[in-house]
Amino acid sequence: MAVTSRTQVGIVGAGPAGLMLSQLLALRGIDSVLVENRTREYCEARQRAGMLEAGTVAALRAAGAGKRLDVEGLEHDGIYLQFRGERHHVNFRELVGRTVTVYAQTEIVKDLIAARLAAGAAIEFSASSVAISDVTSDSPVLSYVDASGVAHEVTCDVIAGCDGFHGISRPLVPGLSLYERSYPYSWLGILADAPPSTDELIYSRHESGFALYSMRSPEVSRLYLQVPADERLEDWSDDRVWSQLQLRFALPGWSVSEGRITDKSITPMRSFVAGPMRHGRLFLAGDAAHIVPPCGAKGLNLAVGDAIVLASALSDLLTEGSSTLADAYSDTCLSRVWRATHFSYFMTSMMHVLPDDPFDDLIQLAQLRYVTGSRPAATSLAENYSGYESPRFEI
Ligand code: FAD
Ligand code: DHB
Q: How far is CA 85 from CA 205, 233, 252, 259, 288, in A?
């Protein structure tokens, strides 16, 4: 027999979308139960994003999860674009009056988990047999088996599917329209104990392939290399990684500082959008509904944006009985998602190299010269990168 209980919002997934939603709902006096199939340690260690839009930083502060971010986050005025041995700074602060902040997704997840637990919320880590039913009724049910083997059935007013690209929620939305583009390359990412030798991120287009220089702290660098889509991690020794990084970022009198590599992984590149992001009383948020290629740093920011929009919509629905924002939820999110999908596609196509394609080569060069030479073109890049239409969280 399952243990039965009730909550207002059942949330599947303790990534940035689910944790942020749970936290924002609590600030509005709405109860939630958060169920995650991985361990807390796994969620807190999963290496992913690192670049936050100004609106995401503001939302984390408003959510009461900004203390460590304010101390440890690295505020950047812009980015460097490098090609043909030239490195150009695009200054977002000067162009659009906004900055961006480097603060790892691992740290955001830790801060949000700590905030939820400090508020007395239960997060069911290591849950199994997670299932959602009755989403077209007024009382959808979230069921799972907890870490100690006890089965639970939670009757909810609403369920939020924040369970990422491979989750169980999206397949429950019938008649979904799916839009997809895969790219013929992947990213090999490393984390290294090496003080970054750059003050801001460098996006470098090199004939051997794209490379991105990012960081996590004054002592830790995060770097990415374009590799073929079907590349095997075993083929990339640490020496090979460093020599490709030195080659792709090379400038006279400057080099990438090297150190011990502590994490190495390969991520495929894909654009994916599924809509509508709602079916009855099931709402999708974050990677459960959309994926962007990482170049341009939009995925985490979109996930947090969905959580902000959904928290307001559910607050109106559950405390005032008004469904206006809930009915608009999918359209509101998808408009921002498509803008970010275009921007990520634009950054990806401008920076990555296709073998033996001289036409593409020269088109990319023309585009890079334009965004680094024209103030209106640079302003458009700055506006999108630093966060166009970031939703605001107001209590
Ligand atoms: P997730 O983080 O995937 O969380 C979903 C959660 O649901 C997971 O914890 C998962 O374990 C859980 N789950 C899944 N199935 C179930 C189930 N059946 N039951 C219970 N729980 C379940 N974005 C940026 O904005 N900026 C960047 O700089 C950036 N860089 C990136 C670099 C890399 C290499 C990668 C891979 C991604 C990057 N992203 C970036 C994207 C960003 O990491 C994701 O968009 C973000 O994690 C989405 O958050 P989410 O909460 O929607 O999904
Ligand atoms: C990071 C990742 C990105 O995809 C990006 O565009 C910028 C930064 C990062 O992990 O730091």
A: 9, 28, 9, 24, 39
What pLDDT does 395 receive?
Answer: 65
Task: Tell me the catalytic residues.
Answer: 76, 203, 294, 298, 385
Ligand 2 contact via 297 beta carbon (within 6 Å): yes
Instruction: Compute the distance between CA of residue 101 and CA of residue 86 in angstroms, rounded to an integer.
Output: 24
Å from CA of 21 to ligand 1 middle: 14
What residues does 213 pair with on adjacent strands? 202, 223
Asked if pLDDT for residue 281 goes beyond 70, the answer is yes
Task: Tell whether pTM > 0.85.
Answer: yes
Q: What percent of the chain has pLDDT over 90?
A: 96
Q: What is the mean predicted confidence (pLDDT) over 357-370?
A: 95
For the stretch 108-166, pLDDT in tens is: 999 999 999 999 998 999 999 999 999 999 999 999 999 999 999 999 999 999 999 99
* Contact assessment for residue 72 and residue 218, using Cβ atoms and an 8 Å cutoff: no
Query: Cβ(10) to ligand 1 under 6 A?
Result: no
Q: Tokens representing 323?
A: 């469904």
> Confidence class of residue 98 from pLDDT cuts 50, 70 and 90?
very high
